[in-house]
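> forwarded from #structure-qc
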């Protein structure tokens, strides 16, 4: 998939995953890569960007079997942004499909 197209949907996909459950970074990156291939540095940049925008936040949880894990969770603003993005995506998808099917 084209890099520019990926960048346009990565934030929405991360918010979508976080709307389902809290993820630790590696697990979230793995889930994201199950949909769109991306490198770790890109994923972590998205996580950081969502925190700066206050669409996500994180907490640290101690692990019994290794180092502590940083878990990401969606915020109320993140849910609102996800709903807005979904509506925009649906409209965009509809317009493009109509155009391509003419």
């Amino acid at each position: 998939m084209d890099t520019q197209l990926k960048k346009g949907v990565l934030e929405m996909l991360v918010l979508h995953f976080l709307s389902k459950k809290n993820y630790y970074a590696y697990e979230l990156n793995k889930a994201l890569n199950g949909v769109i291939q991306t490198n770790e540095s890109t994923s972590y940049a998205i996580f950081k960007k969502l925190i700066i925008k206050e669409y996500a936040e994180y907490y640290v949880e101690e692990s019994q079997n290794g180092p502590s894990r940083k878990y990401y969770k969606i915020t109320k603003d993140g849910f609102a942004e996800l709903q807005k993005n979904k509506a925009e995506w649906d409209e965009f998808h509809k317009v493009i499909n109509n155009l391509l099917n003419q």
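QC bot note: The chain has a mean pLDDT of 91. The helical segments are 3-20, 25-33, 40-52, 76-100.
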